[in-house]
Amino acid sequence: MEFSRYNSSHSAAPSAPELPPDSYDHQYHQPQQSYYGQPQAPASRPSSSNWQSGGFPAGTEPGVVRAFQMVDRDRSGFIDEHELQQALSSGYKRFNLRTIRLLMFLFKNPHDSLRIGPAEFAALWSCLAHWRAIFERFDRDRSGKIDSMELRDALYSLGYAVPPSVFQVLISKYDNGGGKAELDFDSFVECLMIVKGLTDKFKEKDKGYTGSARLSYDSFLCMVIPFLVSYD
Amino acid sequence: MEFSRYNSSHSAAPSAPELPPDSYDHQYHQPQQSYYGQPQAPASRPSSSNWQSGGFPAGTEPGVVRAFQMVDRDRSGFIDEHELQQALSSGYKRFNLRTIRLLMFLFKNPHDSLRIGPAEFAALWSCLAHWRAIFERFDRDRSGKIDSMELRDALYSLGYAVPPSVFQVLISKYDNGGGKAELDFDSFVECLMIVKGLTDKFKEKDKGYTGSARLSYDSFLCMVIPFLVSYD
């Protein structure tokens, strides 16, 4: 059972955040608050005010600072894609480099394309911990995999109401050959990155949360091409 | 000089179409006819009327039919991604499987996700031949590579006016490390697929060719996610 490796106290992988026991059910059953579904998980980059030493935002948990120091093997003060892959693969099943690049693309500072600093790391790490907790909640038999219906519910609980036709396309790549999709945590993170990344970009253009936006051809390409290029 | 391999008469790679000597210059210098730049190359799927035997559209060149028969190694009547990769890699430098999947994604019948038939093959093959001719035209020193300015001109000559900021992101992945992008034919095709695929999708929503379109969140995801999923 690969999942038990999550809980190694020596692992550099993020531990699940402390959630109140009923917070999930409460969030799941509350009515939709905007076109996009539930309110979003707090996964965006922190503001640049209120820093503590070492470049971390004020209030960063000591565990995150320690994780950063463990992951930053060359002591450069920054995390590159191989350090991140190594760290996540030690805690979870091996992470695909594609997922790692997508993670770094969505969390990195736009002015530094190849690595992430302490603030971006803290945001990425707490987001992954949140997603891991969601994944574990839906992986009821602790097999290390969830199926497509569980993915749909997990996305919804995170605030993403993906239309059924899109959802079918999204999960098609995880088909195990028998018409049934199975996702390990790596694939789950990849799906979330795609949905979160595109939704966040679209919402920037739909300030009123109406569910539609007028896009110029240029802005459409600007929204999507960085995504495709990072995804390599 | 890898390029001479294009011209092997035994290769299954597409040969350049017969263009009138001045057609390129004529096309290049004519004024823009819509927001998106020059008129498009005839690269879309042929209509389903007027078929000749073997499932090819009427008027398909005998060379394309022969190429199909050479590429279809298992004589299934369909081309899969590995057959296509093998065929293109024998004529050109080895094609990346990512480029092959993107090609198949953009040319395949929407109801058959894993292979292409004669009609789709004919469209793909003639499109590649057209792009090869463009590539050769811009590869003035016959090195088998073009640089970013030549790519920009080539895209423009094919009808794609990519905004400068997007263009910078697009070519960033082909940087040779010295801040200078160099693209072989495989990378050139990949760039064109990305730009053509996204532009075609956007134009479907911009019937009046005004340069902007109102998109719903659902239709935005539907336009982009298949692209990301195929790109794997």
- In total, how many domains does the architecture of chain A comprise? 1
Oligomer: homodimer
CATH architecture of chain A: Orthogonal Bundle
Proportion in β-strands of chain A = 5-15%
Calculate Rg of chain A over CA atoms. 18 Å
Distance between the termini of chain A: 30 Å
The coarse overall form of chain A would be globular
Fold-level CATH name of chain A: Recoverin, domain 1
Specify the biggest β-sheet of chain A: 2 strands, antiparallel
The CATH class of chain A is identified as: Mainly Alpha
The DSSP helix count of chain A reads: 9
pLDDT averaged over residues of chain A: 76
Most residues in contact: chain pair: A-B, 37 and 37 residues
Helical residue percent band of chain A: 40-55%
CATH superfamily placement of chain A:
EF-hand
N-to-C SSE string of chain A, H for helix and E for strand: HHEHHEHEHHEHEH
Helices and strands, with pairings:
Two copies of one chain form a homodimer.
Chain A: H1 23-29, H2 62-71, E1 79-80, H3 81-91, H4 97-107, E2 115-116, H5 118-138, E3 146-147, H6 148-157, H7 164-172, E4 182-183, H8 185-205, E5 212-216, H9 217-230
Antiparallel strand pairs in A: 1-2, 3-4
Give a quick set of tags describing it:
homodimer, 232 residues, mainly alpha, two-stranded antiparallel sheet, 9 helices, 49% helix, 6% strand, disordered N terminus, EF-hand domain-containing protein (chains A, B), EF_Hand_1_Ca_BS (chains A, B)
3D architecture notes:
Chains A, B: It comes from Hibiscus sabdariffa. Chains A, B: Keywords: Calcium. Chains A, B: InterPro entries: CML48/49/50 (IPR044590), EF-hand-dom_pair (IPR011992), EF_Hand_1_Ca_BS (IPR018247), EF_hand_dom (IPR002048). Chains A, B: This is EF-hand domain-containing protein. Chains A, B: Pfam families: EF-hand_6. The structure is a homodimer. By secondary structure, the first copy, chain A, is mainly alpha-helical. Chain A has a single domain (about 60-230), classed as EF-hand (Recoverin, domain 1), CATH 1.10.238.10. Chain A is about 50% helix and about 5% strand. Chain A contains 9 helices and 5 strands. The first copy, chain A, has helices at about 25-30, 60-70, 80-90, 95-105, 120-140, 150-155, 165-170, 185-205, 215-230; strands at about 80, 115, 145, 180-185, 210-215. In chain A, the strands form 2 sheets. The first copy, chain A, has a two-stranded antiparallel sheet. In chain A, helix 3 (about 80-90) packs across helix 4 (about 95-105) and helix 4 runs parallel beside helix 8 (about 185-205). The longest helix of chain A is centred in the middle third of the chain and has 21 residues, at about 120-140. Chain A is globular. The first copy, chain A, starts with about 20 loop residues before the first helix and ends with a helix. Residues about 1-10, about 15-35 and about 40-50 of chain A have low confidence and may be disordered. Strand 5 (about 210-215) of chain A pairs antiparallel with strand 5 (about 210-215) of chain B, so a sheet runs across the interface.
